[in-house]
Design brief:
Length: 379
């Protein structure tokens, strides 16, 4: 489900996410998971990657976990104009997958009774937003707060490839991102509907800092990354360079690819700045879904679904969808030059993480859907 909230072809809309949907709450649904799933076909998985790289991406990598077995594959080139292969262990910008990490820290703090999910955001950030809006509503995108990346001011700034390049080294503070929403009315009464908003997670990161006294990146590192072992994941802040093996990302200026690998990701902040690897994301979502990061009460809250009217629904920082009758949990992400998605079954036994650098005449989405269908086949 890469980029369902944005325009795939331009690459400019990767941060301009805005979605609408329904308002009903559902418990997590494990009943849709078949008794068993068929082992993924390695050759079929590789063919999808090759087809994707041939027409819709300059680079793609994927990692599939199947009951302890691991398949890794890649296709394309790490940099256009070269023959350098795409490293299967390469690092990439993960976009909105960042939200799952932020939500996990907030839920851990709730489990420690250091905050309550029903706390008004103004309890922690006085004057920040409407005092009817709760932390739970921020987590589940039911706050009604305008998405800062969908405001006219933001779209004017980032409306072309040339403007993105001109601003690639600009450092944004969380307050400057929130300032894009100043004077914007709520889209609906808090809690009455659903609308994806990056603003929610910029606010949640500030709440984490207020509660702990630490930047949210430090809490993610301390509570999640160190706990899960050696990793290639980081919250880069102002750092514009991706260290280690990685594929380049591009934006289209007509038919010309413009390299956007190097840019300051503070423009997305806690809503989408994460850099990670396929192995790390599989490890993280496997731990999260099997209850190794949260207490039971918060695990239940994590998996309580809000219907969205889309082909995915939303828990707390967690998307859910059904493929071949199998319920999957995870998130997708889209940021300049990169798209990623990570999905796992509720028991953590089958997982897929994919990252790609969109480039070409075709839409990557059908290929990603085919990859999902191949990785998660019911027997």
């Amino acid at each position: 489900m890469i980029d369902r909230r944005t325009t795939l072809k331009t690459g400019i809309a990767g941060l301009l996410a805005l979605t609408a949907g329904g308002a009903s709450l559902l418990p997590s649904a494990g009943a849709e998971l078949p008794a068993s799933t068929e082992a993924p076909d390695a050759a079929a998985l590789q063919k999808v990657l090759d087809d994707l790289a041939a027409s819709a991406a300059s680079a793609v990598l994927a990692e599939v976990h199947d009951s302890g077995r691991v398949w890794r594959g890649s296709s394309g080139v790490a940099e256009l104009g070269t023959t350098k292969p795409v490293a299967v262990n390469g690092r990439f910008r993960a976009g909105s997958i960042t939200k799952s990490f932020v939500a996990t820290v907030v839920l851990q703090l709730a489990g420690e009774r250091r905050l309550g999910l029903d706390d008004p955001v103004t309890h922690w950030l006085p004057g920040a937003m409407d005092d009817r809006i709760t932390l739970h509503q921020l987590l589940q995108h039911t706050s009604g707060i305008v998405n800062y990346t969908n405001t006219r001011a933001f779209r004017t700034l980032y409306g072309s490839v040339d403007s993105v390049i001109a601003l690639r080294d600009r450092t944004w503070t969380p307050q400057e991102l929130l300032d894009f929403t100043t004077g914007q009315p709520l889209l609906f009464e808090p809690g009455t509907s659903w609308m994806y908003s990056n603003t929610n997670y910029v606010l949640l990161a500030l709440v984490i800092q207020k509660v702990t006294g630490n930047h949210y990146a430090k809490e993610v590192d301390r509570r999640i990354l160190r706990r899960l072992g050696p990793h290639g994941t980081e919250i880069p802040g102002r750092r514009s360079v991706i260290s280690g093996p990685h594929a380049h990302g591009y934006l289209p200026r007509g038919q010309e690819p413009v390299d956007i690998t190097r840019f300051n990701p503070s423009v997305s902040g806690a809503s989408g700045e994460l850099v990670s690897t396929a192995a790390d994301l599989n490890r993280f979502y496997g731990a999260l879904l099997t209850g190794r990061l949260l207490r039971p009460e918060q695990q239940t809250q994590l998996l309580t679904i809000r219907t969205t009217g889309r082909d995915y629904d939303y828990g707390l920082g967690l998307e859910t969808r059904v493929v071949n009758g199998i319920r999957l949990w995870g998130h997708d992400g889209d940021i300049f030059g990169y798209q990623a998605a990570s999905w796992t079954t509720a028991d953590g036994q089958r997982q897929l993480t994919v990252s790609l650098s969109p480039w070409g005449e075709s839409d990557p989405e059908p290929y990603v859907e085919q990859l999902l269908a191949t990785a998660f086949r019911a027997s």
